[in-house]
Amino acid sequence: MKSPLTLESLIALNKQSIVGHLGIEFLEATEEYVTARMPVDERTHQPFGILHGGASVVLAESLGSVASVLRLSDPITQRAVGLEINANHIRSVSSGWVYGKCTPIHLGRTTHVWDIRITDEQERLVCISRLTIAIIQAKA
């Protein structure tokens, strides 16, 4: 990875964001993938007691954003921002944890495209998402 930032520094940066509020925990970052987990509880449920699709999208976009930031050549002058995301919700989950794994599809100079697969504790597919990140210049 190009960035001088570490997964640990990004975890600290995310503590006071939606990532921290939903209890998302980043687990691993390698050249091939980034992983995280999210609890399925009152913070992430929809009114009928199952995982809210929007919470899955937050997990997916958070994974892709962190993966892109870790690949920036200069995180002082560059920013990674979400451009487009889609998600297909495959299976419901009512408790425990879901796990996300983010792998690159395309790593260009101005865009990154990520495949994010979210599974339950039995490794069954819960949600599949594709995220496009725009690499932009930071405002001075």
What is the fold's blueprint, element by element?
Elements: H1 7-14, H2 18-22, E1 25-29, E2 34-40, H3 53-69, E3 78-89, E4 96-107, E5 111-119, E6 125-137
Antiparallel strand pairs: 1-2, 2-4, 3-6, 4-5, 5-6
Model description:
The protein has 140 residues and is an alpha+beta fold. It contains 3 helices and 6 strands. It has helices at 7-14, 18-22, 53-69, and strands at 25-29, 34-40, 78-89, 96-107, 111-119, 125-137. The longest helix has 17 residues, at 53-69. The chain starts with 6 loop residues before the first helix and ends with a strand.
In brief, what are we looking at here?
Belongs to the thioesterase PaaI family. With 140 residues, this protein is an alpha+beta fold. The protein contains 3 helices and 6 strands.
- The percentage helix is 10-25%
The residue-averaged pLDDT reads 93
- Beta-strand content bin: 35-45%
Low-confidence stretches: none
H/I helix tally: 3
Number-wise, the strands total 6
Strands ordered across the widest β-sheet: 1-2-4-5-6-3
Ends distance: 25 Å
Main beta-sheet annotation: 6 strands, antiparallel
Shape: globular
Broad structural category = alpha+beta
Task: Give me the Rg, rounded.
Answer: 15 Å
Overview features:
140 residues, six-stranded antiparallel β-sheet, alpha+beta, globular
